[in-house]
Amino acid sequence: MNILSIQSHVAYGHVGNAAAVFPMQRMGVEVWPILTVQFSNHTGYGAWTGPVFEGAMIAEIARGVEARGVFPQCDGVLSGYAGSAAIGEAILDVAARVRAANPEALYCCDPVIGDVGRGVFVRPDVPEFMRRQAMPAADVATPNQFELELLSGCQVTSMAEARDAIRIAHGLGPAVLLITSLHTAETPDDCIDMVASGPEGIWGVRTPRIDRYFTGAGDVTAALFFSHYLRERSVASAVSAAASSVHGLLAATAASGQSELQLVQAQEEFVAPSRRFEAIQL
């Protein structure tokens, strides 16, 4: 299976493609990464070096890959952080060209906008781009709870409200949705929910909450879910596999005492999770 992944990249640590590529490769997926930025480290450190690439650069790299004649063998396009609406438009153009070459290919958009507690952390033009252009173009979307609320215009404090927000988000375009982290009134304080919705209904997985913020965890989650969904075309199976692997990764990272995700040390979690959490229909 071949996935074209268009995301940010860091030399040190794991966010964007530096978080998503290796887990997919460990699953046996061939990944073709295109970088939207090349930073020394993620911006949460407060200081970093490196350039942001313009949309024209992304288009140029994509044209070079396309010239190899491999777009018909591309099974999916995965996108994450877009530094601006112009970069986002370049990403959508690449996704459209892949789907023109292979109508069976799917586009998965991780609509990176912000997070609970942090608010919006992208440029002002990005949220509306995600709502008006990226979501309508996507087959699969993987917002977190904050992004689901922003995209749907609904507050989500209960599972009933989550259902309403998910229905509205589906109406924006994607047939498949993954809410990567969800905490409602029904969620125990020591747990976190992951919810996926698609043609076969809404499915949820509840895992123990690890009381730490993990930069890049959403990037890993989107990559794993999309890879599993491409293979099995089942939201229930994909959310169970992704949640199990991510919990194992985060538990290993917390136990290590390190601040960065321990992708290499915990790599078996991507193929044989140490603990399996089954999805239940909601």
Automatic annotation (TrEMBL):
Alphabetized UniProt keyword annotations: ATP-binding, Kinase, Nucleotide-binding, Transferase
Gene Ontology process terms (BP): pyridoxal 5'-phosphate salvage
Domain Pyridoxamine kinase/Phosphomethylpyrimidine kinase: 92-259
CDD domains in UniProt: pyridoxal_pyridoxamine_kinase
Alphabetical list of Gene3D superfamilies matching this protein: 3.40.1190.20
SUPFAM superfamilies, per database record: Ribokinase-like
Name under which the protein is recorded: pyridoxal kinase
